[in-house]
Amino acid sequence: MKNYINGQWVDSSTGRTFNNINPAQTSDVIGAFPRSNADDVAKAVEAASNAFKAWRLLPAPKRGDILRIAGDIFTRRKDELADVMTREMGKTLTETKGDIQEAIDTAYYAATETRRLFGYNAPSEMNNKMNMSFRMPIGVCGIITAWNFPIAVPSWKILPALACGNTVVFKPSDDSPHSANIFAEILEEAGLPAGVFNVVHGDGEAGSAIVEHPDVRVVGFTGSTTTGNAIAARCGALNKKVSLEMGGKNAQIVMPDADMDLAIHGVLWGAFGTTGQRCTATSRLILHAAIHDTFIAELTKQASALVLGNGRSNAAAQVGPVINQRQLDKILSYIEIGKSEATCVLGGERDMQGDNANGYFVQPTIFTNVERTHRIFQEEIFGPVLSVAKATSFEHAISLANDSAYGLSSSIYTRDVNAAFTAIRDIEAGITYINAPTIGAEAHMPFGGIKGTGNGHREGGWTVFDIFTEWKTVYVDFSGTLQRAQIDNY
Questions:
Q1: Average pLDDT, the chain
Q2: Residue 89 pLDDT > 80, yes or no?
Q3: Which residues are catalytic?
């Protein structure tokens, strides 16, 4: 496997590689990918910089035509790409097909928006003068993403960036590199000119080189809060625009008047879908005391019936493996912390049954008697671990939900319209669901969070174009005289 630079598949200048491993069957080596360095990044940035000169001048709707074709190709290759993604990062095929569908939706949406990159006009305060503003492309965008959504999350950044007239250097996670190469194949087949989109594989060394390169004008990052904060600090020092989508510790509240079956199905999907490896995963469940015990009894019953397995060989699998040994060790260590803090009512072990012994499988795990001071209540685990806290009132539930360093997604189950709208107002999060789990973003809506989750930008929807454009204000004075603004004309 190789890097994709200036329309060519090329080896890294380092000669070093890393192996891409199937987390459901660790003996399955998918391929060796380049462990790139700053020299490789420099070549990709040079190609992107050169390509930007012509790409920015192509009319936006013509750029949209290419993105629309890319959406068609993603659709045609959906089953093939889903199998590739399940093999390299472990989600079930149903989930990886959904991952690709997000890219399809984003491609069509971004293509349409190339006809809607609206500016704003405003009346001038002076005679015979017009005030206008336009969205302008910025230049080379460095895109760095995580492994859990190898196609969807990159598409949220890459496709709008291209629609706006920028060029891209993309460093995917070293846990899901194969999907990125297929992304490049699809954009090339769609007709994207050489150099407009480039893929550089590697680890933090390549990522740091992208952030540091002086010709990378924008950095779009999805990953851990620790890494995101470091990137933000460097971009601040280098005066670069940066968009961060980082961690979450998302809470689902269930009130006594809720539809209990619906709420249970919601938390099962929110907590254990994608094996809990989503920034929007339901990692905290806040139950009103009046329904706590009966809810937990039914939840543990249904969660214990979830089928763990390799999505490529077990059609019944509902929960896949965690991504790698490092994450497995982290999750198991948090489970041990949880056992010392609270009560483990389900799971709590690595799953070693049958073929699962060959992969990184963790049993769906539920803790009760969790207090707001506990580490498993406060810290992001990024695995199939659910921490359950008890609330004595609606106000107490909102207080527990807001007691977090993160603020990405949130959920409340209630039939009380007044409580629902109060929760919408008072929960501190970028996303709030009413009677739905904390996961389930849609491509045409803003996505992102507050506090430790992000730095104010929103991917998805119309708001993503604010990340990948700069505003240019234009004044046209046709008065034929010198008119002086910003002085006392009164």
A1: 97
A2: yes
A3: 245, 279
